[in-house]
Design brief:
By secondary structure, the chain is α/β, with parallel strands linked by helices. The protein is built from 8 helices and 10 strands.
């Protein structure tokens, strides 16, 4: 099975750069600095014109993953809109106040996700009993879990990732994410059974402002993170190396 690189982005220019560099799939977000939120309706219309498989983050706000009934309603409407635009998939996750998978809320979201590939995002990493949550995700019909193995980075969580892959067997795809670089992705490739990898492939750049009379606390230049096509290409080269 070919290895897949999914690149997370939160700007149209980054989506175009990732695709041009050869990304196999995109995760479309807003506000990656907050962990990723649902993109605006206008952004999704623009993204839908890009010729690349893309999964859309369904997360109505920053903060925890414990949602009210009204917030779940919003998420369901967002999923319906994503489906109407013909996207490949959606990405979401809901937890109980005890940091267990909220299977009731997840069933509601799954009920409107038919025809879409569903990824359970890194809310999974906040769950203490990940092996129970894995079985719940399989029974819900979720296609993949994006996880760092409950650690800050996927490299730190490699031992857990390997166990998750073994327990998942053919029931669900385990997709490592967090802190993946062209260098360390080779280490993750040593885990048999992982075929999809999630990375930001970002580099910090300085963007000059147009008005020297206005300062936002950083002088006349702002720094931001942008998709680095060299990192995308390097990750793909590593995935194709063996």
């Amino acid at each position: 099975m070919p290895r897949i690189l999914e690149v997370c982005i939160d700007k149209i220019a980054d989506a175009e750069a990732a695709v041009e560099a050869g990304a196999h799939r995109l995760e479309l977000c807003a506000s990656l600095n907050e962990g990723g939120l649902t993109p605006s309706a206008g952004s999704l219309l623009a993204y839908s014109q890009i010729n690349c498989a893309a999964s859309v983050m369904i997360r109505p706000r920053a903060g925890n993953f414990v949602y009210t009934t009204k917030e779940i309603d919003i998420m369901m409407d967002d999923i319906k809109y994503v489906k109407s635009l013909g996207f490949y998939g959606v990405v979401f996750g809901t937890l109980t106040p005890d940091n267990e998978l909220d299977t009731r809320a997840m069933r509601r979201l799954m009920s409107v996700s038919g025809g879409l590939s569903v990824t359970l995002h890194r809310a999974f990493d906040f769950i203490e009993d990940q092996y129970q949550a894995l079985e719940q995700a399989i029974s819900l019909g979720i296609d993949r879990i994006l996880t760092s193995g409950g650690r800050n980075t996927a490299i730190e969580g490699m031992n857990v990732l390997e166990v998750l892959v073994g327990k998942a067997e053919e029931g669900i795809q385990i997709m490592p994410g967090s802190g993946i670089t062209p260098t360390n992705i080779v280490e993750l490739m040593k885990i048999d059974g992982i075929n999809e990898y999630h990375a930001s492939c970002k580099s910090k750049v300085v963007v000059e402002t147009n008005n020297s009379a206005i300062s936002l606390g950083t002088g006349n230049a702002l720094s931001e993170f942008q998709t680095d096509s060299r990192k995308v290409k390097a990750c793909i080269a590593a995935l194709n190396s063996s």
